[in-house]
Amino acid sequence: MENMEDKKTILIVDDEKPIVDILVYNLEKEGYNTLEANDGITAVDIALDRRPDLILLDIMLPKMDGLTVCKKIRTSLNVPILMLTAKDEEIDKILGLELGADDYITKPFSVRELMARIKANLRKSEIKENSNLDTTEEIKNKKITVGPLELDLDKFEAKVDGQAMDLTLREFEVLKFLASQAGQVITREVLLEKVWGYEYYGDIRTVDVTVRRIRGKIEKDTANPKILITKRGVGYYIKAN
Amino acid sequence: MENMEDKKTILIVDDEKPIVDILVYNLEKEGYNTLEANDGITAVDIALDRRPDLILLDIMLPKMDGLTVCKKIRTSLNVPILMLTAKDEEIDKILGLELGADDYITKPFSVRELMARIKANLRKSEIKENSNLDTTEEIKNKKITVGPLELDLDKFEAKVDGQAMDLTLREFEVLKFLASQAGQVITREVLLEKVWGYEYYGDIRTVDVTVRRIRGKIEKDTANPKILITKRGVGYYIKAN
DNA sequence: TATTTTTGTAATAAATTTGTAAAAAAACTT
DNA sequence: AAGTTTTTTTACAAATTTATTACAAAAATA
């Protein structure tokens, strides 16, 4: 349906085929997409080209070692990198240079632990992206007010004439997007792209239904909307006061 | 609000340029200010002059070794010092010399691990400062009150409508974090990071279960919570009155 | 060390949200 | 006015998210 839970993509960089296979098998079982690279140069190429959500990177690699790969990727991408190091002895060899990685795990590792680490690292990078949810920022208490409509972006709450309405997340986001450019007519296409996301390929009428649901909550008379208005043949807009 | 978000400043003392670069990159990404020193003497100068909130100190340094730097700084500053050591053997030196480093970490280390240590040490020094204040001043008996909910942060006790509830530590901390920003929806990710900690690898649904347990204690009807509310698709929040 | 308590995990049930399709209504066109 | 297009409305099914429960592991306490 919707929220394709846009499957996260993980790039596996390792030259040992059996290990890659195990990783691919387990990651896909967990619902991730996977990409593979068998040497360092390919790894950098794929990383830059495909922009994976996380990279599993072995240190010992042909053509370009993992540390260099790590640094190269780091200069242009902010993706979490999880280093795979072979044995404790090898760590000493590489001594001190391993820093660019977000996390590392030594071989042999349990699949279970690796999955846990991957999840944790993905979570972390998500938090950073959605920094409007991150309470460490002091961007708190953001509000959008248009006429009788007031959106509290922290509480995900909408008020009409001071009265709080209980909107779902999807409804709230549509309303927020419209309200952020009140007065401006927004096409369904744009709404789909901005709220539902780029890779959404559902019916465009979905927007209508969502608008209907929002109206049912914020308008006194849904047949005569005063806040969220239809511009026939174009789209919808919030009436600026 | 307590989260003044005055950025913490971290002094990095290391003579290996690439390592410093990676550290700077990652620390700033995490929202810290950074200062750099490439040798021991400069390190002491900068430390005394700029008063950083934490110092990352490599042991092997030109001009004045890390151990001496540490002692020098310690004589006049109470800043947390996190030592970076190359090999395991050197740890003995640090511990043996008892020169007042707060923590040490051996190379190679993951960014994740380093950040966790830095955060932990900053927290500790903050607690120390606060508890100083608390005993010298009379600011004790800190409380958070939101509607019918009252949290006594000294006693780790929660009251609902005046009646004391017996919460476990974990439960209390979740409730405290939520209550400290009542009305604001907090994601599970943020809760995991703030309450469980930076290096926690567990399942995100753990939050749900903990919330369930809290509800079982503070809500009259867990199926219709009035205090700790779910914002579906986002997270949880404490209803501000 | 034994016992109790807390905490995390996993599996299942329940609740809610969301998308789709189809029919009805409204707004334009000719 | 009849036909066409677009939007609104409704109902339903599917998908997703959350709640609940039981159990096991870990931690704290006696």
Describe the protein's architecture and organization.
Two copies of one chain form a homodimer. Helices cover 39% and strands 20% of the residues of chain A. Chain A has 241 residues and is α/β, with parallel strands linked by helices. Chain A folds into two domains: 4-130, 3-Layer(aba) Sandwich (Rossmann fold); 137-238, Orthogonal Bundle (Arc Repressor Mutant, subunit A). In chain A, strand 6 and strand 7 form a beta hairpin. The longest helix of chain A has 19 residues, at 111-129. The radius of gyration of chain A is 24 Å and the shape is elongated. The first copy, chain A, starts with 8 loop residues before the first strand and ends with a strand. The interface between A and B is large, with 41 and 45 residues. Chain A binds a DNA duplex (30 and 30 nucleotides) through residues 1-3, 5, 168-171, 202-203, 205-206, 208-213, 215, 222-223, 230, 232-233.
Which characteristics define this entry?
homodimer, 241 residues, alpha/beta, Rossmann fold, Arc Repressor Mutant, subunit A, five-stranded parallel beta sheet, four-stranded antiparallel beta sheet, 8 helices, 39% helix, elongated, DNA-binding
